[in-house]
Amino acid sequence: MIKIYGLFIGTLILAGCVQQPERTKPIAPEVPTVVDEEVQELETIAFKVKLTEFSTGNPLANQTFELQSAKGELLGTGTTNAQGMASFEDVALGQEVNVLLESPVMKISRHFIVDNENDELLIETYAQNKAISVPILLQEPELPTGCEMTSLTAMLNYYGEPVTKEEMAKKFLKKVPLRIEGGKLIGPDPQDAFTGDPTSAKGVYVFPQAVVETAEKYATSVNEQFAASDLSGSSSQEIEKYITSGVPVLMWITRELEPPVTNNGWWIEGTMEYHKTFQNQHAVVLTGIDESSVTIMDPLKGKVVHDKSEFFTSYESLGSYAMTLYKES
């Protein structure tokens, strides 16, 4: 009897002096013949971009942007013509691209997949070197001390948001009343909250950081992408860059551009700091600027033109407070 030990690994291994089976020469596998195939070229088209001013639909000429691949590789740059159009040749169908438009104050990016039915991208952006068409919105009678919320609402309306000044003041603005504690009048930091209530004639005011936070709360509530920024401390030249790029700026000045008047005040809660109240503080939207004058949307008067130098002197006298926002999507 022959006993078989070992493992079966491809061939049978026999123990002892058992005669091994005759080995056969392995047959080499056939190597398939490589057939040259013609390389198929990718189909390409001319990819076009049209730039318009979002509030009027007017074409924007001489605007430079970049075309990038999905990986960020630069495919080219282009400048729009008088019809607001620019074209890139030989862009592959099905390719994912990013179109980037830059100005001195912002950067806008759009993602796009090129195909035969989507060979043109419309970008709505901001007018250059033109007066900004922020709508006239008056604060009275609903918000007698709500110049900041009225101005902010006008800016949001400019971007197509249907919100009202009353909604902004009631739902999104943080408000803290004054109170007497230990014989002292205690109130909030104006950068953190509105002192009192803008629906009351006894309301006081609020400063840029709290307005930025108010704008951000609104944007979150409607799922919109707004970039809100505190521009406090900016020079007139820096502010002007926003205006010439079509982005309005909310600015704190004095009424009638007179010197600031302070009187009384309150102790800022949680600190040893005493805040003197500005009696003639006002907030407006700067919408236009040239060599000698500025145009504003004044929530007490409507459209007003001021001397440029006097306007910025008033702005600086209150501490150079300003903020802005623009719509990213």
UniProtKB/TrEMBL annotation:
A Pfam family per the record: Peptidase_C39_2
Domain Peptidase C39-like: 133-299
Organism domain of life: Bacteria
Organism, as annotated: Planococcus liqunii
Protein name: C39 family peptidase
Entry-linked Gene3D superfamilies: Cysteine proteinases (3.90.70.10)
